[in-house]
Amino acid sequence: MNVLIQIRDNSFDREINEFIEGGGNRILISHSTEESIHYLSVHTVHKAVISLKNLKDAAILKYINDYYPAIEVVVIANKTFDDVISIFQKSTYSVIHEPLRLSELTKQIETKSKFSEAPNKIHK
pTM for the complete prediction? Predict the structure, then answer.
């Protein structure tokens, strides 16, 4: 089984190799999103471990989800990323993608206003 590991800190490469390859797996260690995309295009990858140290590292998660949905992914994230993800999962936020268009902003604000003005229904 091929396992892709994307981690910024290369000081753990030897330990990661010993741990993963000891179980009969082949390890592909990447230190950037670009390097991970290269490995994905050249090798059949079964599992991926992605370390999120900054927002740029999250790009590989979308890439894997879009192009390799069968790959099982484990995310290593600090508490800040976990908190941000949980906030979005439990919220009713709207997202507008850059570049910002005022028409889209107006539409989202109007939609939110209508939603908050709707009377609460009581179910019996």
Answer: 0.62
- Please state whether the peptide bond connecting residue 99 to the residue before it is cis, i.e. omega within 30 degrees of 0: yes
Residue 23 CA neighbour count, 13 Å, CB half: 9
Token match 């059949």: residue? Answer: 44
Domains, the chain, in order of start with CATH, read 2-117 (3.40.50.2300)
Q: Tens digits of per-residue pLDDT, 80-119?
A: 777 777 777 776 666 667 777 788 878 877 776 666 555 5
- Of how many residues is the chain composed? 124
Q: Which amino acid is at 53?
A: K
Supply 32's token pair. Answer: 């950037």
